[in-house]
Amino acid sequence: MRSLRALANISWLTARQMEAVAGAMTVTHHDKRSTIFSDKTAAESAHILLAGVARITCENRKGGRTTVIMLSPGLIPAFPTAVAGITYNFRCEAFTGCQVGTLGLNAFMKICLGIGAPPFKLMAASLLGRWDRVHLRCSNLIGCTLDERLALVLLDLTENFGVPNRVGGVRLTVSVRHHHLAELIGASRPRVSERLQEFMHKQLITQQDDGLVIDSEGLKSFLLEAQNEVISRDIQ
Known about the structure:
Elements: H1 2-5, H2 15-24, E1 26-30, E2 35-38, E3 45-51, E4 54-59, E5 65-71, E6 74-75, E7 91-94, E8 98-104, H3 105-113, H4 117-141, H5 146-161, E9 162-164, E10 170-172, H6 178-185, H7 189-201, E11 205-208, E12 211-214, H8 216-235
């Protein structure tokens, strides 16, 4: 209870809620540099850093790990939802020796908000999930080639506006002009038009009834090959 009361980002809980959270938690100790949890772990738990310093890391394009945020004691943020074409392999790691309280996400939501975890997750995804995706996409575009940036944006559009095409691929239900794509990836319209022609030549996209049909799997394979080339060059 003393540890919980000192945590700023859950200090808004009432004394009764604090007591309920403390009673429901399982407390574990983690040595320096050990993994507390990863994005491979089922996302049905809430984790509270009670003591120590932790960090969240992810894989960079060269296959190494990069620190994206340092964490002081408090509620550990959940990992953002996946973005098509990008692999992060997020991990929460102990930067120093850490003490962590863990309890079921549904129990935590019931204690704090009086609702179950599924409705809360849907609400959070609706309110904040898209901003997570914007941040992840923009951060990932740094250091990418123009072709890679274009592929990532096209994959993002298929998730929001794509429907299965009757002869294969994913058809966009919204008309996306070349200058719109140029704004999304930070390039000039002529260069984007040139790269789109190259994508059409490789049959990664096709034009159909004034709309784009996208080979999502082909674009993902293209991005994976590009990442493997970066890793190979770095090893050499």
